[in-house]
């Protein structure tokens, strides 16, 4: 019986190692399996292997939901536990993946006591010298104090190590962001659908969205991430855009859409092959996410040398309208770009930025423009 049990455990362990990771939480991705009391000093974790499936370094605290820090009550969005990354702290996990496949990591984070908190996300092995994401957390976009972030990478080996690191050096070594719910999603190469020259024009293919959170996922700009997890698109701006789902927001078409949350600092773009001198129609839907984002909005659409400004008066309760931009291609490649003209804040006294929703973007040639 003992031999059978030992063989069974060995086979299970071998089977687990051989499997590639699937979409969803990483093993112990929500940190619900925590350290033993002997591996902690107060809230600080003292053993680098204390949290199952993770390798730790630096000042790391194990936080229980409802724990107080001064006058601040720490809330955990998924389950009962999260971790806090202090000065130069990092967590790492090795994953079995498919070599050559593109992946997106999604994680939830919240600021605590530092003023300029940020997180560095990276993967090894990696031959691209600058392929890492330094994600700033000075601006929080949800009313709950937590935001989810996405970061993309190309798997260069069948086993990779994903790392999340707080590079901050604060006077209080325990200061730093809270981290919870780390997930991954495999993303196949984007393809053009029939009746649309753009890839992923309906935004259905993008990073993993946590089903139990209501604040969407921030997709960082190309400054922070060379590999945009919003397939087919580039975030050409200083700040992120928000990837939203129909389970928690009003979405014009399908299950996913994009919210332009930071005025002209929040833009998406795609370059598409065109024929110089040919006439094209760019159509899209714009509206609001039904998230108390009220007031006068305006989306600016660019294609070739033509710009279209489309106003939208939002009551913050959902709704959308359609728009069309007709243009003549001036080269064999045309950049299609969208941004929000204004900054808008939610009408809930949170000070959270929001903005118009873009969805169902299509580009087609016009056969008889006259």
From TrEMBL:
It holds the Pfam family DUF642. Its main location: secreted. The keyword Signal applies. Keywords: Cell wall, Glycoprotein, Secreted, Signal. It is found in: Secreted, Cell wall. Residues 1-20 form the signal peptide. Residues 24-185, 197-363 form the DUF642 domain. This is Allergen Act d like. The lineage of its organism: Eukaryota, Viridiplantae, Streptophyta, Embryophyta, Tracheophyta.
